[in-house]
């Protein structure tokens, strides 16, 4: 295969997930041509919006190449342009340099003790940084790759021993399948991993490493709370995490205002996540700053409450967010997917269950029964899309 693009041009890849991605990524990366992976699960309108914002020179589709006369140049240092998950609005386009991607791969390999013979399974969309890095592990790290067109728990288990990057929803499906997970080594990112779910997966034999990072940092920069080589973290005056290191993006494509807002004046990346750094250097992320619920002077983290609610025998899934409260400023509301619609939990049941495990002020004061919880493709809850009633 020869793709008719050169360094300094951006190629948008609009392919279905599958083995063809390996040869495309290998060619473009090897020739120093920057590329933007598109998520095939998005509608044509959504993909077109990303393409319009990115202004590539070329779109590589299933059967053809489409050139644009007005495609915008890209700095030749850039290796990939990746759309962020867009939990609070339209995704931004993070420009990641080739050196940043290589630093991410090298620091990850060192932390995990990877050897070239270790097999990686690609079961995440390559349009997200976690899935894309798996393909680049094959190209740069020469790991054997098994590319799945979609996530299939049975197929992943059958391929063990292997490594895979997954999101918490995939871990939940693996556990629900009831299979023996010995031989599976899972990097879990994209959203917080429920500690109870992690314990279940490890009890079945899986090796779990929970990652923290952003698209803007080439994915995970902390594994089980430990920062990877070269990455530093600090907290601002309000307790928000800031990061600096060799894997941080150059900026957002065609968005100088967004880029300026993403960095402090001394060059640290603002993550928007609140947390703490323990004395031993462990990074603990408590949640998104704009997700925190402030009730009567207390700060409540939705992730903590959601984790408890998902343990309720009548709850299949749950999301938690703030609702206005005349007395307390805000209170906790829960959106719950019942396991069975004819046996849905009541607010009183949910509150009693939560109060046995959490401080009473964290217990939901409103309950909404919903058919599903709106999430990004990486598993993050899209709280702004939770229905009002």
What does it look like?
By secondary structure, this protein is an alpha/beta fold. It contains ten helices and 23 strands. Helix 6 packs across helix 7. The longest helix has 15 residues, at 98-112. The radius of gyration is 21 Å and the shape is globular. It starts with 9 loop residues before the first strand and ends in a 20-residue tail after the last strand. The model has no long low-confidence stretch (mean pLDDT 93).
What is the alpha-carbon Rg in Å? 21 Å
Uncertain runs with pLDDT below 50, 5 residues or more? none
- Determine the N-to-C terminus distance: 53 Å
Count helical runs. 10
Shape: globular
Number of strands: 23
Biggest sheet: strand arrangement:
8-7-9-10-11-12-13
Note the main attributes of this structure.
389 residues, alpha/beta, GMP Synthetase, Chain A, domain 3, seven-stranded mixed beta sheet, four-stranded mixed beta sheet, 10 helices, 23 strands, 26% helix, 29% strand
Summary, kept brief:
The chain is of the alpha/beta class. It has helices at residues 20-31, 44-54, 98-112, 129-141, 153-158, 168-177, 195-203, 256-262, 302-309, 347-355; strands at residues 10-13, 34-37, 58-60, 65-67, 78-83, 93-97, 120-122, 145-147, 162-166, 184-188, 207-214, 219-223, 226-227, 232-235, 240-244, 251-252, 269-277, 283-288, 293-295, 298-300, 315-325, 329-338, 366-369. The radius of gyration is 21 Å and the shape is globular.
């Amino acid at each position: 295969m020869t793709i008719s693009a050169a360094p300094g041009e951006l190629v948008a890849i609009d392919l279905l997930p599958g083995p063809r991605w390996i040869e495309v990524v290998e060619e473009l990366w090897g020739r120093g041509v920057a590329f933007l992976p598109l998520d095939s699960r998005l509608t044509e309108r959504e993909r077109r919006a990303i393409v319009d914002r990115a202004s590539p020179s070329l779109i590589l589709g299933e059967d053809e190449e489409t050139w644009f006369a007005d495609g915008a140049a890209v700095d030749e240092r850039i290796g990939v342009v990746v759309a962020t998950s867009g939990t609070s609005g339209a995704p931004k386009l993070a420009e990641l340099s080739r050196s940043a991607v290589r630093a991410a791969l090298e620091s990850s390999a060192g932390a995990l003790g990877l050897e070239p013979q270790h097999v990686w399974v690609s079961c995440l969309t390559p349009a997200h940084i976690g899935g894309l890095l798996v393909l680049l592990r094959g190209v740069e790290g020469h790991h054997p790759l098994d590319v799945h067109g979609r996530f299939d728990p049975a197929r992943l288990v059958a391929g063990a021993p292997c490594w895979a990057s997954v999101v918490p929803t995939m871990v939940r499906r693996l556990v629900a399948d009831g299979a023996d997970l010995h031989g599976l080594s899972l990097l879990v990112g994209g959203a917080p991993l429920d500690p109870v779910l992690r314990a279940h997966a490890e009890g079945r034999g899986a090796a779990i490493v929970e990652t923290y990072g952003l698209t803007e940092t080439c994915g995970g920069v902390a594994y089980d709370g430990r920062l990877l080589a070269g990455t530093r973290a600090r907290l601002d005056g309000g307790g928000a995490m800031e990061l600096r290191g060799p894997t941080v993006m150059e900026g957002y494509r065609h968005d100088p205002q967004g880029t300026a807002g993403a960095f402090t004046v001394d060059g640290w990346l603002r993550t928007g996540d609140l947390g703490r750094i323990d004395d031993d250097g462990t990074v603990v992320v408590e949640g998104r700053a704009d997700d925190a619920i402030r009730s009567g002077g207390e700060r409540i983290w939705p992730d903590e409450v959601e984790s408890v609610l998902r343990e309720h025998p009548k709850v299949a899934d749950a999301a938690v967010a703030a609702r206005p409260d005349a007395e307390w400023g805000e209170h906790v509301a829960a959106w719950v997917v019942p396991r069975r619609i004819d046996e849905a939990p009541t607010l009183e049941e949910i509150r009693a269950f939560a109060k046995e495990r959490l401080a009473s002020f964290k217990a939901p004061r409103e309950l909404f029964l919903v058919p599903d919880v709106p999430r990004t493709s990486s598993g993050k809850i899209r709280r702004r899309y939770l229905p009002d009633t």
